[in-house]
């Protein structure tokens, strides 16, 4: 059983009538004539940075479009405004304020698109706020191809109080930056080192259901804070160098509940880490003991480049570039051990490469307990988490 945590999921809140907090003195609220694509586009065209566009209740379909202004696109509540997406919606980060999305229930036409939303824009722009929505990829049952809900192609943002529901290989959040943006070339922003809370991607107080293989897919240059979430038959995944061009930068995983409520599901891990450094603490983990699939470890740790023989692999010496337990100080890579403490339930690690040994070396040469990762009884020295709830939630134009 998953214990009660401080989770405030607002996925069924009706937001109609709630006061908006405007980002400019002359900000206005524009109400679309209906939830239909044309009416919403007309309302968005009339809105300026800082405005709110209210979308009334109903069941409608949207085609692909882009929102480049710092506007709050607000439905009447996830139980009232239902939108089927026939193409991806692009949310562009703005320098004039946060793009905000709330109060919808979204489904996807898989025959028309492989994902619901794409978030892009400069790392230096203001972080988007995505909250109080239901994102459901299960409509119509388990279908192919697999699909994703939110794809981030930039760092910075707050995702909170949403319900993500999908099938086995669907993704709730994919985070893949194809351009560096200096993420692996400058110092880390772990904990309160993210001084204004705008450099990392914060995922907090959400529910993930049914995305067994990869509810999250944190990848190139990602700086992730994953906290106070509930996962039900869903897993936390990252990529490292060799499985991806660059790999995850750093991660903070704390105060989440990782559940395995259906022991007939072939779930192989709760967390799979393949690059970077970070902390894991205060989480609850169900034992992954399947009725049909046996007893699996809850934490997988991998360095795939050991076996790939890639140009930046590890066939000659430790450590691999960007591998687990490595950080960067602005000038060079250095050892920064992953610290794991204060978790409950069952958390058994498994060290593997997952591929045959091209390099002819032992995985233990690259992943050692006490060096790359460490189970401890106390917090990492000097670590302090960024304030929770994220302060930007307090200025949200609900």
> What structural class do the secondary elements suggest?
mainly beta
Proportion of strand residues: 25-35%
Can you give the helix content as a percent range? under 10%
Q: In terms of quaternary structure, what is this?
A: single chain
* Overall 3D shape: globular
Give me the side-by-side strand order of the main sheet: 1-2-5-8-11-14-17-20-23-26-33-36
Number of helices: 2
- pLDDT < 50 stretches: 1-23
Distance N to C terminus: 33 Å
Mean of pLDDT: 88
Largest sheet: 12 strands, parallel
* Extended strand count: 36
Q: Radius of gyration over alpha carbons? A: 21 Å
Describe the structure in your own words:
By secondary structure, the chain is mainly β. 4% of the residues lie in helices and 33% in strands. The chain is built from two helices and 36 strands. The longest helix is centred in the first third of the chain and has 10 residues. It is globular. The chain starts with 28 loop residues before the first strand and ends in a 23-residue tail after the last strand.
How do the helices and strands line up, and which of them pair or pack?
Layout: E1 29-31, H1 37-46, E2 52-55, E3 58-62, E4 65-67, E5 72-75, E6 81-85, E7 89-92, E8 100-102, E9 105-108, E10 115-120, E11 129-131, E12 134-136, E13 148-152, E14 157-160, E15 163-165, E16 171-175, E17 201-204, E18 207-209, E19 216-218, E20 223-227, E21 230-232, E22 236-238, E23 250-254, E24 257-259, E25 271-273, E26 277-281, E27 284-285, E28 289-290, E29 294-295, E30 299-302, H2 305-308, E31 326-328, E32 333-335, E33 338-341, E34 344-345, E35 349-352, E36 373-375
Parallel strand pairs: 1-2, 2-5, 3-6, 4-7, 5-8, 6-9, 7-10, 8-11, 9-12, 10-13, 11-14, 12-15, 13-16, 14-17, 15-18, 16-19, 17-20, 18-21, 19-22, 20-23, 21-24, 22-25, 23-26, 24-27, 25-30, 26-33, 27-34, 30-35, 33-36
Antiparallel strand pairs: 28-29, 31-32
